[in-house]
Design brief:
By secondary structure, this protein is α/β, with parallel strands linked by helices. It folds into two domains: 3-134, Alpha-Beta Plaits; 143-421, Ribulose bisphosphate carboxylase, large subunit, C-terminal domain (TIM Barrel, Alpha-Beta Barrel), CATH 3.20.20.110. The chain has helices at 3-6, 10-13, 33-43, 57-63, 104-112, 131-134, 143-151, 171-182, 203-221, 235-247, 257-260, 262-271, 284-287, 296-307, 325-336, 358-365, 375-378, 384-400, 404-408, 412-421, and strands spanning 18-28, 66-73, 86-96, 122-128, 158-162, 188-190, 226-230, 252-256, 276-279, 311-314, 346-350, 370-372. Keywords: Isomerase, Magnesium, Metal-binding.
């Protein structure tokens, strides 16, 4: 086999139609890491653990992967410098996109389908797609600019609430909670991810009941609160769920992308013309392993954006979940920084969101974000409407450069919220 069929330098491969995948792997120090990398790239493209007949040079040139780089961690160049029994590496491999075309399922099978023949426990820590691959993805239909036009809110962070309790109630009860919360001026109210399409609270009935509640609140306040309906379900039901909700009056929908699969979100985005909220529920199984899965910025940032989510719920380090600060920032960047032709998705920060933490999030991520406040709204001592007003008061203060403690002197709802939930420095 020619060396050029099996290996390539990074500079020579970047302009070609290859996906560059970088893996973290831990190996016993006596393991030949070059052989391991070669085994991975052959096993994930043309071959298996033993030579098989029928593989031609033309197949190798067009369809076999290539080893691009191997980096030692720490960067030891001498065998005498290795003082541990286990050595960590970053291995970068290139896979021709001709093998799987522009789709998630076969791409993921290729870059992370490690089976018994490949025998490598790895974590995908970085993946770089060529423009020829990404251009086939539609991405968000609305993006940040479209969401702002949709809501009529030009600059400030948006405010989202989710119905609490999470499940177990009828549409009429949910509509009452919706109305009381909408009076406080929230921009969106979504279903909790635990509420799908159960018999006791069907999606179509929820849409109709919540739309009436939204209209009633609008008549009283002049502010429109948009309901986001969770249509997560079996693959054969989801698009029908979405269309029935839209026919019933829904202006936006929500899907738990990790549970249904990124390709299902692609199909959904191509089938409807309303904003899609992508929820991270179930995504932990993708990135929480050290030697398995792929990194959070891809699992919860870039991939749902490529699939077509206009707004993406993300974890943060501030709500009790131990996400590293670096991963939180990188995830938001994968959603919103320029990336080929794709529109940016709007990050939704959730988990422990309350008025006292609004300034921290704006400093971290800027104002093109959505605050997902649940317990601090429904759990406000003065009621849900007051909880929503407290969040809006905090957002307005931050956007005006007014310290929250000073703003609280002018707004009772904010003062009570800060006393109840604290001030995050």
């Amino acid at each position: 086999m020619k060396q050029t069929q099996l290996y390539a330098l990074n500079e020579s491969i970047r302009s070609l139609d290859y996906v560059l995948a970088t893996y973290y792997i831990e190996l016993p120090k006596e393991t030949n890491v070059v052989e391991k990398a070669v085994g991975m790239t052959i096993g994930q493209t043309l071959g298996t653990w033993v030579p098989v007949p029928g593989i031609t040079d033309e197949m190798r040139d067009k369809h076999m992967g290539k080893v691009i780089n191997i980096i030692d961690l720490p960067p030891c160049d001498l065998s005498t410098q290795v003082q541990t029994d286990t050595v960590s590496y970053l291995i970068q491999l290139a896979y021709p996109t001709a093998n799987f075309s522009a789709q998630f399922p076969q791409m993921l099978v290729t870059v992370l389908g490690n089976d018994a023949s490949t025998s490598a426990q790895v974590k995908l820590v970085d993946i770089q797609f060529p423009e020829s691959f990404v251009k086939e993805f539609q991405g968000p239909n609305f993006g940040i600019e479209g969401i702002r036009k949709f809501t009529g809110v030009a600059e400030r962070p948006l405010l989202l609430n989710m119905i609490k309790p999470c499940t177990g109630f009828t549409p009429d009860i949910g509509a009452k909670i919706f109305y009381e919360t909408a009076l406080g001026g929230v921009d969106f109210i979504k279903d909790d991810e635990l509420l799908g399409n159960p018999d006791f609270c069907p999606v179509e009935q929820r849409v109709k009941a919540y739309q009436k509640a939204s209209d009633a609140a609008f008549e009283k306040t002049g502010h429109r609160t948009v309901y986001i309906c969770n249509i997560t379900d079996r693959a054969d039901r989801m698009i029908d769920n979405a269309k029935r909700c839209i026919d019933a009056g829904a202006k936006a929908i929500m899907v738990s992308y990790a549970a249904v699969g990124y390709s299902m979100v692609c199909a959904l985005a191509q089938s409807v013309n309303v904003p899609i909220l992508g929820h991270y529920a179930s995504s932990g199984m993708f990135y929480e392993g050290i030697v398995s899965g792929f990194s959070a910025p891809f699992a919860t940032g870039l991939f749902p954006r490529m699939a077509g989510a206009d707004m993406i719920m993300m974890n943060t380090p501030y709500g009790g979940y131990p996400l590293k600060f670096q991963k939180y920032i990188q995830t938001a960047h994968k959603m919103s920084l320029p990336y080929y032709h794709l529109k940016p998705s709007m990050p939704i920060v959730g988990g422990g969101v309350h008025p006292g933490i609004t300034e921290r999030y704006v400093k971290d991520l800027g104002s093109d974000i959505i605050f997902a406040a649940g317990g601090s709204v429904q759990g406000h001592p003065m009621g849900a409407a007051a909880g929503a007003r407290a969040m809006r008061q905090a957002i307005d203060a931050v956007m005006s450069g007014i310290p929250l403690k000073d703003a609280a002197k002018e707004h009772e709802e904010l003062r009570v919220a800060l006393e109840r939930f604290g001030l995050h420095n």
